[in-house]
Every structure is written in C-alpha cells, then in structure tokens.
C-alpha cells in the first residue's frame, strides 16, 4: 500500500544508484574511464578479477564525476529535504564507492552519515543490511531503494519507499503488507530508447543514394533496392555509434544547456539498456550488409572503426575532429557507390570533402557559441576554446567556397560534356549551393542554428527548394 514515509525519529537510510539518482555510478565510472584512458581499458579485467569492491575503488580513484550535474530524482530529493527539516536523521547507504558517495553527500547537504563501499567491501544487499542493523543497534529504521538487492532491506525496514523499481522490487511492493510508497518516473523508456537512436539523424544517410542519382539509374529497381539496404545499414550502424558517443559524453552533455536532456545524460535510459540496444543495432546492420557486395561491407566496417575512434579520441582533437566528420560524410557516398557496383567520381568526392568540412565547422562554431565566453577544452569536451570562434568561422566559410569552386570546375570538365546534352544548364547550381552554405553560416552567427547542420539542411524548406531546383537542372541538362 502507498503511504508517505512517516516522519518520526527513526533513521532513514537512502540508496544512491537508481534511487537518489537516475543512473548507476559504477557504469558511469566505467565510461568516464574509457573516455579518459581508452588505452588503459584492459586494466578493468584485472580489477574485476579481484572483486567488485576493488573495481569500484580503482575507478573512483581514477575518474572525476561532477556530483552537481548528476540526474537526481527531484521527488526523492524533495522528500529528503522535508524529512531533514523535520529533524529526522538521514543516512546515505550505497554500494557505490565511498569517494563518490561522499561527493554526492557534500553536494546535497542532506545526509548526517554516509555508508558506502570501500576497497574491501561491496556494500550491497545483505552486507548493507548487516551494516544498517549494527548502526541501529536493534532499533527500527526506514529505507528508500529500488532494486532486487534492496528487497532484503525492504523486508527488514519498518516502512519502505520503492523508487522506479525493477521487477523484483515491484513484486515486493505489490505484495507488501507494511507501509510502503512507490515513486516512478513519468518518462517512457521506449520513447527514450528511440530518441537515443536519433532517427532524425538518419536523413544524413540519404547520401548513399547520390551515386545512383548521378548515374541516372532512377528506374533500376534492383539498384534502388541495394541503395535502400545500404541506407538501412548505415542508419542502424550510425544509431549504435550515437549511443556509444552519448555514453562517452555523459559529463560534457550534462554541462550543456540542451544536451543534458538526452536520454542517457538525464538518466531516462539506463546505461546497460543502452549497451544492449547499441549491440543489437550493430549486429543487425552487418547482418543486412551481408547481402550486399563485400566492398560495401568493408566500407561500412571502416565507417564503424572511424566513428569509434572519433568517439573515443578524435572528437577531442583540434581540427582532426572536423576533418574526420567530413570524411565520414564522404564515406557514405563511397558506400553508396560500393553497394551498386559503381565507380565513385573524383569530382564528387572532392566537392563532398569541402562541403561537409564547412558543415562540420558550423557544428563546432555553434557549440563554442553555446558555451559562451570562457569556454575551454574541459567544458566543451572538444579541442576548442572561446577565442577559436572567429578562426572556425573563417575556415568554415572558406571551405564552403572551395566546394563551390570544385563544382564550377566539374561543370566545365570533359566528363560533364560527355554525360549531359546541355551542360551549361548546370551553371545555376553554383549560386544555389552558395545560397545554402552562406545562409547556414549566417544563421549560425545569429545563434539560430541549434541542430546538426546536415539535418537542418534536410528539413529546412528553403534548402529543400534549392535541392529540388538543383535536381531539376540535372534532369533538364541530361534529357532536354
């Protein structure tokens, strides 16, 4: 039955992971460590072999988690504040390492004591119950928890608060005969998982259709089917990387004014669920790729290796990050050519590199602006500081103009004269592309660009008009 936790002199013991915060500090420490020391990840196996308590202690000693940015459950915090104002003793009792537990306690200022794991003891389940009983010396206590490890504590407590329970804890609450209260999240896990996949970013993968379009093979059904499968493969693979990227970027995202609402940063989707989802998407992508030419699968594998390297290290390297992003966009075009057994054009690849480098620099420009004055490498999670803003902007505009120059040289090339009956009809493409590039930079400088530039172009009606006009020019030039 649901009742409010009775405000008495009984001590109130509160769990941390999954209860006070939406998340688990062990998993968060793992990804903080993976981001800070990717080459030292192998050491985890040795620590884990010595026991969970040692693993937690080593990770806590080597990572820094900002307690102020953790996703606290507001209802639980409000309850603890009310109990503290009533003069009730409140103790943080957690299986997290003592360093992290004390950091949380110091930030909130709600706890009289802290019980936590140390290097020799993993304070969970029965061990936690023994410690609490010893602390209470046979007197009654109340408990706030969330998982199957807490069921034994629910049973021993005078009253319990069950927070966003797992299956075992929910089953206990449903059968409880003593006072108990249930606190659940309002957000949908399924919706959070879908959001973590970022399906709106899949529009980037229409680039795999570019080689087919430029070959004028619009009505070739088998070729179109291959391109569609390539699109699906890249979408699933990209989603798995987005999830990994978000897990590695937890700390930086929580300091960002909008990214802190992402499913993992906000704690809506647990990290283990995210890992399972990423693995499923990855395997599905390569299972589908098996029916396409081996060259496509090799290109997809390269894309995954490059994006993984980007997530772990390259994204924090000055300029290397934007060059990598431009290369990844171009890789999609190469993969589209591999899927339909077509040769990629030098002109197309040259245009793609410059065009997408400009858009990648837009993305970094906006991020530096969002962090404002005083932005540094620590706060942005990138290799840029606030004084780089003008340099990034100038480089981005120059790269965009270089893309238009490549396009102009292509239109005047011998290849175009062979492919198109009226190649002069392609010249208006240059001002159309210039319009798209300059407009997106104007919006970025006005601080009106709050999403990925490629996704913005795909959804912006003005840019869509320019792309439709460009497609019409290709068709007219080819068939008029």
Task: Write up this protein.
With 480 residues, this protein is α/β, with parallel strands linked by helices. The protein is 60% helix and 6% strand. It has 22 helices and six strands. It has helices at residues 25-36, 43-49, 52-62, 74-85, 98-108, 125-136, 151-156, 167-175, 189-197, 210-214, 221-248, 250-254, 271-289, 294-312, 320-339, 346-371, 377-380, 389-411, 414-419, 429-445, 453-459, 461-479; strands at residues 12-14, 90-97, 113-117, 142-145, 159-163, 180-183. Helix 11 (221-248) runs antiparallel to helix 13 (271-289). The longest helix is centred in the middle third of the chain and has 28 residues, at 221-248. It is elongated. The model is unreliable at 1-6 (pLDDT under 50).
Summary keywords:
single chain; 480 residues; 6 strands
What is the element layout, followed by pairings?
Layout: E1 12-14, H1 25-36, H2 43-49, H3 52-62, H4 74-85, E2 90-97, H5 98-108, E3 113-117, H6 125-136, E4 142-145, H7 151-156, E5 159-163, H8 167-175, E6 180-183, H9 189-197, H10 210-214, H11 221-248, H12 250-254, H13 271-289, H14 294-312, H15 320-339, H16 346-371, H17 377-380, H18 389-411, H19 414-419, H20 429-445, H21 453-459, H22 461-479
Parallel strand pairs: 1-2, 1-4, 2-3, 4-5, 5-6
What does the radius of gyration come to? 27 Å
Described by the principal axes of the CA atoms, the overall outline is: elongated
Count of alpha and pi helical runs: 22
Tell me the strand order in the biggest sheet. Answer: 3-2-1-4-5-6
Q: Portion of residues in helices?
A: 55-70%
What percent of residues are in strands? Answer: 5-15%
Order of helices and strands: EHHHHEHEHEHEHEHHHHHHHHHHHHHH
Terminal Cα separation, in Å?
A: 77 Å
- Biggest β-sheet: count, sense, barrel? 6 strands, parallel
Which structural class is indicated by helix and strand composition? alpha/beta
Q: Please, what is the average pLDDT?
A: 89
The parts where pLDDT drops under 50 for at least 5 residues are: 1-6
Give the beta-strand count.
6
